[in-house]
Amino acid sequence: MTGLSIIFSTHNSPHFIKFTVTYDTIITDSHVILPQGMVEKNILIDEGKIVGFTTDVPACDHKINGNGLVSIPGPIDTHVHYGVYSPINEAAKTESHAAAIGGITTMMRMLRLGDPFSNSLQSQLNAASQNHYVDYAIHASIFTPQQINEMNYCVEKGITSFKIYMNLGGEVGHVYMDMPPNSSRLVAAKVDVTDELVEQTVKAAAELGCPVLVHAEDYESCGCGIKTAKEKNQDGLSAWSSSRSTESEAKAIKTVSKFGRDYDCVIYFVHIGSERALKQIQEEKKLGTKIFVETCPHYLTLSYEKQSGYLAKVMPPIRTENDRKAVWSALSNNQIDTIGTDHVANQLKLKLDGDDVWGALAGFPGIGTSIPILLNDGVNQKKISLEQFVRFTSQNAAQIFGMYPQKGTLEKNSDADIVMIDLKKEKTVTSDLFGGFSDYIVYEGRNLTGWPVKTIVRGELVAENFEVIGKLGHGKLVDRKINLFSK
């Protein structure tokens, strides 16, 4: 709609008054990725929403030139850890800053609290509410029976997905919880995520209509493997991988998948990076479990066979070159649904607190590099199409986690979360590029082709050409629906 004409008459003489509609923003001349494919249209934005597409250039307050760029639905990072090594009131600022530069418009936080949710959740929500540049959502981790009993309280607060850590228990039950707001003290805890706790979490989530995210490693197998490797004085990322074998992943996948079938619960496997895990998941799907699969950029790009040092220590570990290729194959064949970074906002002084792989901290930053890595290694190498890229980074996540069609698409009436990418843009990765809390990055010095150059969240340009220009506090908690989305 470019204008409105109204006719009225005075003394039998018709008069015409034309009211011209002015849009907030128009994006011109970009290639637009819609569910039906790429179109060459201008995008009309008003009051934070996409209101239409046109070949015209109607009146607007802001015009964004998209010549040579591709406009995609705002990417959703399904898996982000922040608030652990710095309090959420600070971490939200630094990590949403990194997200904005990296072309992420919604970041999904893995909330970890040791207290009952009724004690600690609201203060976390309050502290987060004014400190994001981009939108965000939350998965609540479950560690205790009392937290299971309060899952409905989380749903009332807008948290409609839950996380279980099958890797934490027994001898390997150590975890850092999220810091209280305005604190700077690490919150170390010991937890025991038993099969009984896992089953009861799945049961409760099914009753609420919520998906369960699963870190699938059997903690007893991992504890035994680590003990054996240390006794043999093994070191390095290869020792870390062998101590947490792919069979421990398969065992955990099998256990929780049965619970998923028993209670008709959607199971979402996070950070899958081995051929063995992928095969077990396919077996469980055939048995009827409703499963979605997430992988991470590091499982597509790194292997312990080609990586030195301890920076790439992560759980589950990076595996072999064959595993890396298997993950790419699964992604290309749409056997993987989403890409999450498993981003951990930590620093070198903690990361390398020890003389061997056993003393190093697991996890590393990655929210800023996810999109350029997938463009460089995936789209530009023709391993995945642009349409697949959009599904893996945005559409599928929005559907699985109850945000669609508000997020995950550029259709009319959706949020104007738009990232404009330059498939020919070359830039070298450095640790200070994204302005996050971390002072290192595993991809330091790597030259990538294909970068986000404009990040728009609900109609507001928050980052442009690797600089954040948006207002702190613009990012809001996404309103999510209870969604039994299944295939």
In a nutshell, what does this entry contain?
The chain is 31% helix and 25% strand. It has helices at 88-101, 117-129, 145-149, 151-156, 195-208, 219-231, 236-243, 246-263, 275-286, 297-301, 321-332, 348-351, 370-379, 386-400, and strands spanning 4-10, 13-19, 23-28, 31-34, 37-39, 42-46, 49-54, 60-65, 70-73, 76-81, 106-111, 135-141, 162-165, 174-177, 187-190, 212-215, 267-269, 291-295, 338-339, 343-344, 418-428, 447-457, 460-464, 467-468. Helix 5 packs across helix 8 (246-263).
Structure description:
- By secondary structure, the chain is of the alpha/beta class.
- Helix content is 31%, strand content 25%.
- It contains 14 helices and 24 strands.
- The protein has helices at 88-101, 117-129, 145-149, 151-156, 195-208, 219-231, 236-243, 246-263, 275-286, 297-301, 321-332, 348-351, 370-379, 386-400, and strands at 4-10, 13-19, 23-28, 31-34, 37-39, 42-46, 49-54, 60-65, 70-73, 76-81, 106-111, 135-141, 162-165, 174-177, 187-190, 212-215, 267-269, 291-295, 338-339, 343-344, 418-428, 447-457, 460-464, 467-468.
- It has a nine-stranded parallel beta sheet.
- A hairpin with a 2-residue loop joins strand 1 and strand 2.
- The longest helix has 18 residues, at 246-263.
- It is globular, with a radius of gyration of 23 Å.
- The model is unreliable at 1-9 (pLDDT under 50).
